[in-house]
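Dear U.,

For the methods section draft, I wanted the exact inputs and outputs in one place so we can describe them consistently. I've listed the two proteins in the order they'll appear in the manuscript figures. Please don't edit the token lines directly; just add comments below if something needs changing.

First protein:
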Amino acid sequence: MLLQENRFADIAVHVDAKMESDFDYAVLGLCGKKIGKGIPAFLGLPEKISTEALIALGAELNVSGSYDLYHIPNVTAEAAHGFDLFGGKAPKREVTITQSDLEQTLEAFSPSADGSIEYCGMDSRGWICRISQYRMDIGRAESETVALMPDDYVGVNVKHLGL
């Protein structure tokens, strides 16, 4: 990354979706599996993007694929007007992200429809509850029973009961 020749994009990501909110950029960042490994240049995005949207995109790109750098023409610092995003070369790969891709990605990263938290008990020592959560490490929602116990020294301890 320190050398200029290592900072050019090598993936052309054509965005053919409605990008109306900061959250849409976060979901776009979660499309790392489809984008693939490399340095993406996002094409087709508006030139006016909020700082919060750029932060959301960058944060979620790191969640979904650990990207060192990304470019958006006329938006990101290195992709200023007239900058050759690909360093005079053709991109190694071209990808199109559609509205459908964003919707599928959002669904995949969302908890199951029942996404419930069911409190089983509570006393002076804490709570025992059954929760449903999305686990990125296994790629699906999973339920588990946990005990949440206040601790005067470090906040809240969580013990997985495996029930």
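Second protein (the one for the lower panel):
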Amino acid sequence: MPYLSIPHCGKVELVNLDPNADPDTLISLLSALNSILILASFQPLSRSLLSTVLVLVELLENDSEEVALLASRALTYAFDICPQSTTAAVEAGIVRALSRNLLSVTDMDIAEQVISVVWFVCRSGE
């Protein structure tokens, strides 16, 4: 079963976040991840954040709107903490995923969150 852990050194590590997991499991994990990322703003993060960002990009295209919302929120926090992770996200196809989300938006919360992610991605090119 996927789980989150916070090692004693203060680094955040996401283990076994499976984009094919059921929506309820993903919602639970993404909610926990968002809580951890909010608190981790000034803590050093492990390299697992980059692999987490790649999974989050994939989750942007999940059928569950709540999963997509939580994934985009986690990406916003991750990009704020680790701006260089936006490069990995762009290479993983985040622009395509964000475009699809904006073209098929049915929820204003998702639209606002996706626009926040777009802002971080655009800012990384400066």
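Candidate sentences for the figure legend, describing the second protein: Residues 1-12 have pLDDT under 50 and may be disordered. The chain is about 65% helix and 5% strand.

Thanks,
Y.
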